[in-house]
Amino acid sequence: MDRLKGVFSKEIKKEKLPIGSVSLKLAVLSRGPRLYSTRRIVEEAINHEIDVSVIDPMRFSLFVGNDKSDILHRGIPFGCNAVIPRIGHSITNHGVAVLRQIEQLGIWTANSSIGIMQSRDKLHAGQLMVNHNIPTPATAYVREIQDVQHAIDAVGGFPVIIKVTQGTQGHGVFLRHTLHEAQNLIQGLLMTGKSILVQQYIAESHGKDIRAFVVGDEVVASMRRKARGREFRSNFHLNGTVEPVEIEDEFRKVALDAAKVMGLNVAGVDLLESHHGPLVLEVNSSPGLEGIERSTKVNVAAHIARYVMDAHAENHMLSSQNTPKMASNVTDTNTFSDQLI
Question: What is the pTM of this model?
Answer without folding.
Answer: 0.86
